[in-house]
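Recall that a protein's primary structure is simply its ordered list of amino acids. Everything else, from secondary elements to tertiary packing, is in principle encoded there. The following example makes that idea concrete.
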Amino acid sequence: KHTKMAKRSRTEPDLQRECLELLAAQIARYPDLRCLSNQIADDLVAHLDSCNRLNDRMLHLLGAQGCPATTLCIHLTSSLPLLRRFSCLSSLTVQSLTLTGKNGADLRRNCASLENLTLEQCSLPQPFLRHVFLPRLHTLQFLTCNVLGPLPLPPSSLQLHVLRVEFTHISNLTQVLQRLDSLIFLTVRGPNTSFNTSTTHLPPRLRALALSDQPRLSTPATHLETLSLRDAPIVGLEMDARLFPSLRRLELDRMHLHGSFQQLLALSTLQSLSLSGAEVRKKDLLTVTALDGLEELDISYIALRRRHIAQLLAGLPRLRTLRAEHCLRTPSRLSELSVPDGVRVVW
């Protein structure tokens, strides 16, 4: 068989898929098979899920043998009670389901040790939401969900570190954030009219914030190190640099930045700036050399001349990485640039 495979020049992914298929068949045939490591179990679950075959029967067979899979993605509400068989489960994704209060109770009873929960394209009525803040959660994600009612206020003992709310309206998001003092990473993208940065109390330990709109903060974000405003549908930038004393990384990809650079240049602590695809005047772009602490700069998809890139390379003494993909009409001329020692340029 190995000879036949070699003759057919199978790629490594093809071979891996064949092995996983054979393993799935063996488990179906011998339910007491106990040979799976965590990595193989996770690979098998991901493979079956990718081809829409992670059904209740396979979950039952995997769980019956104490499957060590640590990550599951389910599409069937009838699969939730089976999760009690997965004692090692630390990460769960639930997709395209309408979840009930009973589903929430199953989740709390069977997945008390769950650390990462992702709810994607799900309908989440109030009875389910009562159970959503599981006691050991570190990461909670609502991705394009229909949240039917307010979230419960999280218990003070919850140590949630990551919260992502994307294209999901949560009516009491501001009140929930006031109870999440342990939060380190927060993403709020898409329309969410309940979230207003000018009135919202940001968690005191927050280090990374990603928004669809620019922050109009009224109090300092003392520990904030990363701010992402990628694709924000706004013109210009309104930021008071004094409110961001620790900001190290700023992402403004594909934004309209005309006339905004004076405020940007006041962020003297910046070490990484991403402007990929941003609408910016060339004369403004060249003023980023005033940020002499900059170590990473991304100017991809901004139409420039070779001399502009040369000016940036010469004017940023601490620069270590410059991304300039699709900047020049004739990329072959980049070879004529003088690149300082220790600088990596991605064309």
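The CA atoms of residues 135 and 158 lie 6 Å apart. The first strand starts at residue 71 and ends at 74.
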